Amino acid sequence: MKLYDLCKKVILIRLFPGMDRSMFSRLEKYEGIIVEAYGAGNVPSELFEELEWLANTNQTVVIVVTQCIQGTTSNSYATGVSSNSQSGNPKTPIVLDMTPEAAFTKLSVLLGCQNPGRKDESRIERARRKMRGPHRGECHGTSSKKRKIDCK
Hints:
Shape: globular
Oligomer: single chain
Number of strands: 4
Structural class: alpha/beta
Strand order of the largest sheet: 1-2-3-4
């Protein structure tokens, strides 16, 4: 029995020192990008600019998570502050407090859903909205109450 269609255009990348920003131009074909950032969610500003471009221009859902085994993402870095600000731009990269594996799986499911959500939003917009909130306690500090991941 098939429960969900998974989007195959989601990629998980890990930042490393000296990473060239031109590498991000190769990510245009993806609908979802999970970025494992340094420490508590730090992304070098020149790389973050590329992620913002992908999120805004290329209609890509960009999620930033931490590489750390313990600890969480934080808004103490400029990356977290700019992406989680109440600027009114829902297309900025989203900094989440969840494991890379959980973020990858959740985004693959949400982008794979063909079921229409709100009538006025696209599949990409719906995935952005749904990634910001917990579904099954996958984010730190969220309820572990089990809920079905719906596509609406």
